[in-house]
Amino acid sequence: MRLLNPEWLWLLPALALLAWFFPTLGLRRPFRLACALLLVLALAEPGHRRIGEGTDVWVLCDRSDSAKALLEKELPKWEKLVSDSRKGRDRVFFLDFADGSEPRPDPAARNYGGASGQSRIGAALRRVLNERDPDRATRALILSDGFPTDEYESVREALVREGVAVDWRFSTVTQGKDAAVRQLKAPEGAQLGETFLVEAEVESSVDGPTPYVILRDGVEASNGQVVIEKGRGRIRKADQLNSPGAHRYELRLLTQDEQPGNNSRSLWIEGRSAPRILWITAYEPDPAAASLRRLGFAVEVVTNFNTLDAGRLAGVRAVVFNNVPANVVPRVFMDRLDYFVTQQGGGLAMCGGKNSFGSGGWFKSTIDPLLPVSLELRQEQRKLRVSMAIVMDRSGSMGAPVSPTQKKMDLANAGTSEAIKLLGDQDLVAVLAVDSTPHDVFGKNDSAVSQASLIEVGPNRAEIEDRVRKVQSTGGGIFVYQGLLGAWNSLKAQGVGNKHIILFADAADAEEPGDYKELLRNLTESGATCSVIGLGTDKDSDADFLKDVAKRGNGRIFFTAKPEELPAVFAQETVAVARSSFVEEATALVSAAGWREISPQAQPWLPQVDGYNLSYLRPGATAGAFTADDQKAPLAAWWSRGAGRVAAITFPVAGAKSPLVLNWKGYGDFLQTLMRWTSGEDEPEGLGLRARIKGDQAILELSYDEEWEGKFASEPPTLTATSEGLSKSRDIVWEKLRPGLFTASVQLNPGELWEAAVKVGKHALPLGPFGTDASLEWDNDPAKSRALQAFASSTGG
User: Fold this and answer.
1) What is the pLDDT of residues 621-660, one digit of tens each?
2) pLDDT given at position 524
3) Are 473 and 430 in contact (CB under 8 A)?
4) Whole-angstrom Cα distance, residue 787 to residue 146?
5) CA-based angle 370:318:611, to the nearest 5?
6) CB-based contact 588:627 (threshold 8 Å)
7) CA-CA distances (angstroms) from residue 616 to 521, 612, 656, 788?
8) What pTM value is reported for the model?
9) d(C-alpha 96, C-alpha 108), whole Å
10) How far, in whole angstroms, is CA 259 from its chain's centroid?
11) How confident is the prediction for the chain on average, in pLDDT?
């Protein structure tokens, strides 16, 4: 037994003196004496020691990018000192941490395998609290550079309560040359044409001028030199935004020093304008966009598809694709549209043409499930009998695993099989597996060939798919020319009808010996085409070469960094080539009663459309008109998806295949009605939503007027957030900080862009993009180190 407050025992001599000199108090009586002694004992707080002998020391080793080089030489020495200082029943546990944390069973094995872009000391301390032995005394020792990136103050109370003291040993940055961007500030948003300031604070170990550049969306916006005096300098630059949407600003110091990671910082600024329609079109000028502008809509026309990025959806009410093929739309933008529609309440529409819907490769894209029309063809509608040769990369890189049970090669095989499923019975197909030479997948052995077997799909479909799924990665790189030559030899020798090659290759491992340019010239002059599916991104080392192959082959180019998307990409390309889903003949139409759902007035339809994309109305969707031919295909259809709305206009509204539509007197009224419905309702007044970045946390705040107090009492607002790394959005818990303000936080990873949506009744409020960059990990501000030391000291360390 031990006494937590033994100082109260000094009352015992006092009680004895009182009992001696003042007998009338009755302290000599047994009952009163016992009560007095029990009172003193209670004040002294006796307790039973349940903590066992010995101490557990948890050694937290910082393995983040900024600390790795500094601690490389120090860690072995420090860890040995800790291990050698053990006495009796003491124990030592090693925990490596950065973005995450990993216990180290073998003290000598410093092979941390997790992400290392942050120094999450707070998370590591929470793990110690969760995994410590409560029956033993515990201390935590932090071995770090002293610059945490996460919030750790909230763990202090638990550490003190559990008696876990935090000690520290920091390795300081070497005293060489170092310049750092300490702070980058700008308004969250600005009206178009409004001047605003971009401000920065810079520190450097060397006084004098330091050159810098400010980038807006990756393009230089301004440059100059910041003068460093007494280790500090300030940058103030005025700028304007001339286009709506969120724009990324980055400040870079153009200097060579020992800590390059802290030489840049970035932030997002929204160019604010009236809510607008983002009109992505193949036409310049676009008569449909011009018509909507005349009717008072704010329309932002996009013809340069490479500019579509995460920031373009900020402030957008609806997105429209006007005869744009799927392969030219950046995937990072396309993949955002599901959340934009279903959670943020945005609108989406697609207009018809030869490069739209199924003909444009949108089948099985991320947008396909959102559309009110389905893009599969239930009847054989092909341009000609198709002869297709698929060139598959089976090089060494394709043997890399993407899951415990699958490799890249398995998913490439699945993609090829998906393409074959979509071919008709009369179509012909050849498949070549290529490393340094082509190999006929349908051949009797695996020897190199100059051409492959071209087989009719119908009677051989099951065997073909079985052979394709058994292709294995064999090593080396893919020789693209050899694969293309083998494919073309197969098609020109035996092919009939529409001849097409699909080249599948790793965008970072595609070699090109041979005159592929001359080969593709001969191929296209013979009426054949060649498309490319690149595994990787358009920034990979061999991406430009693959783009050139697709361009010279009069085909399409697809890039995907996610092997699991390969089956869908193969399907998109096959449908675009093998199926004629665009009907070019003028077709009569019949109206439907569904138009009354979105307009109180009847629509005076034109007698005929110039052509249309063959599709089918999905269950639950509504159509305003159908074709009068045997297909009975929807020409205008719509439905709601989550918080948003989606429409499909399956006939062309611009271009060479639209003279009848363009001369239609109801053209403008039709577009106006459909776009007003698709754009949804105005945002409610009295609500404000913003994000503040604090370290590796985004603090989301919803402010509201008092008129919303009663509404929120019965139906609180809900919050979801998503990022590129999440397959689905996740719910975030609000905290009512005070009347008129809800707040929540989102954990950020460097370079990860987030977006959020608040649902208030039938309304949805969008927010984003927001995030933090890699500079957070390299922010070696001495104030952060001092704050961590003070925190550790407060725990008794």
Assistant:
1) 999 999 999 889 999 999 999 999 999 999 999 999 999 9
2) 94
3) no
4) 9
5) 65
6) yes
7) 38, 12, 24, 62
8) 0.81
9) 12
10) 28
11) 89
